[in-house]
Write a structure and sequence with these properties.
Blueprint lengths: L1 H18 L12 H8 L74 E5 L15 E4 L5 E2 L4 E3 L4 E22 L2 E8 L7 E11 L4 E6 L6 E4 L7 E9 L5
């Protein structure tokens, strides 16, 4: 009953406050809830929850520029960047100093000297140059068929060889260079058979040197032979010239 009477009394006071005369001197109207509170105070309530944060305020004005700080430590080296575009060509420089003279190179000219000849007569005379008059090759005419000698016109290293048919008797031949025998070949004839004798050599020749082949000894060692089906040949050619002289 006491609670109901209090509620009715509070309601009556609220109606009187809404319909009362406004007082000009008062700035604020009395709060009806305060009237009720003054009439009957309740127990204090629990604190309310924190409200939502307010919105950020406007940015303030920039402050004055501070003093320059100390330099920082040098950072780590960065990765190498991509290669840039090729720049424009610079101006042409001045000619450099003349270089040292290079070593002497090989001559571009091709030196040629070669011959290949065969025997046309049987049993050439001993102890004189054998005259090979059958020409297979003698373009430079360095072999003389009239003397049976090769005449060196280009100093250098030469290769010589001979291949002889042996018939009727033994053969002793030698290859000469400037009146001196260089190599000797001997073949003993076998009866009722055709044999072969051969030899070869490398020689260094100077301009004017002569090379030839001849039978040495007595006439019974002159079995060098040739006919229409058997050849006895003599040949030679330049391997390489002396570049210091050309």
């Amino acid at each position: 009953m006491r609670g109901s009477a209090g509620f009715l009394l509070c309601s009556l006071l609220l109606l009187l406050a809404l319909h009362g005369t406004e007082v000009a001197a008062q700035d604020d109207q009395p709060d009806p809830k305060m009237l009720c509170a003054n009439w009957m105070g309740g127990a204090p309530g629990h604190p309310g929850h924190n409200g939502l944060p307010g919105r950020d305020g406007k940015d303030g004005k920039d402050g004055q520029k501070g003093e320059k700080g100390d330099p920082g430590l040098q950072g780590a080296r960065g990765d190498t960047g991509e290669k840039g575009a090729t720049g424009a060509e610079g101006p042409r420089g001045f000619p450099g100093h003349m270089g040292m003279k290079g070593q002497k190179g090989e001559s571009a000219y091709v030196y040629r000297s070669a011959f290949s000849v065969g025997l046309t007569e049987r049993a050439p005379h001993p102890n004189v140059p054998i005259r090979f008059t059958k020409i297979f090759y003698n373009e430079q005419n360095h072999y003389d068929t009239s003397t049976g000698k090769f005449l060196c016109s280009i100093p250098g290293t030469y290769f010589f060889s001979y291949h002889l048919t042996v018939y009727m008797t033994d053969v002793k031949v030698s290859l000469y260079k400037k009146d001196k025998a260089v190599i000797f070949t001997y073949d003993q004839f076998q009866k009722n058979n055709v044999d072969q004798a051969s030899g070869s050599v490398l020689l260094h020749l100077s301009s004017g040197d002569e090379v030839w082949l001849q039978v040495y000894g007595e006439g019974d060692n002159n079995g060098v032979y040739a006919d229409n089906i058997n050849d006895s040949t003599f040949m030679g050619f330049l391997l390489y010239p002396d570049t210091d002289d050309h």
